[in-house]
Design brief:
mainly alpha; DNA Cyclobutane Dipyrimidine Photolyase, subunit A, domain 3; globular; binds flavin-adenine dinucleotide
Length: 182
């Protein structure tokens, strides 16, 4: 969040990581942190290159075929954590109560809205814009477009297998219980 609000510079983080690696050695976490910072930078650059397209349904792609459902009820249920999927619901409730959701959660709820509910991805992006305490225009809209398959490297969109994700990331239902039983 400090990055999104401009309180902390990515360059400072990068140099701190390098300093740490010189002292203690590199590890998986230092690798992934730099990798994620590069995604952040990259999204800023593509947003500068295509300032309008990332708010359009087809993003930076052409000839996308949509099969949308336009269900206002499905959208409301998604926002309020009342879908058929309890992992999605737990994440949406965390967002509603705190303004935060993990990157894993964001990817899964976005995939569910786009590929399962078949809603316009921009409705989800706009809701995140309204709710996230770390809202950032490029990171938000470019990530949504990426999962919808209308950003960079489209490959028909990124549909997540939610059952597999739950088995990997919440096998004992700890996360779901935390938010669903509030
Ligand atoms: C649909 C969707 C919407 C998102 N909307 C936003 C947003 O509005 N604002 C925002 O700051 N991030 C957004 N992200 C990126 C990411 O989810 C958050 O930055 C992350 O949850 C922050 O957690 P962290 O600091 O523990 O990340 P770490 O994994 O520790 O990563 C360190 C930093 O790298 C950057 N980063 C990590 N993952 C991503 C990513 N996928 N894309 C771009 N930058 C990344 C962030 O600045 C993050 O703080 C979004 C991701 C998705 C999938």
């Amino acid at each position: 969040m400090a990055l999104a609000l401009g309180c902390l510079s990515p360059k400072k983080i990068y140099h701190e990581i390098k300093r740490y690696e010189e002292q203690f050695g590199a590890n998986d976490s230092t690798y992934w942190l730099v990798f994620e910072l590069m995604w952040r930078d990259y999204f800023r650059l593509v947003m500068e290159k295509h300032p309008k397209n990332f708010f359009m349904q087809n993003g930076i792609q052409n000839n996308v075929k949509w099969n949308l459902k336009h269900s206002v009820l499905d959208l409301e249920n998604w926002k309020n954590g009342k879908t058929q999927n309890d992992f999605v619901n737990a994440n949406m409730l965390e967002l509603k109560y705190t303004g935060f959701m993990s990157n894993r959660g964001r990817q899964n709820v976005a995939s569910y809205l786009i590929h399962d509910l078949k809603l316009d991805w921009r409705l989800g992006a706009a809701y995140f814009e309204e709710m996230l305490i770390d809202y950032d225009v490029s990171s938000n809209w470019c990530n949504w477009a990426y999962i919808a398959g209308v950003g960079n490297d489209p490959r028909n969109g990124r549909a997540f297998n939610l059952d597999k994700q739950v088995k990997t990331y919440d096998p004992e239902s700890k996360y779901r219980k935390l938010w669903l039983e509030k």
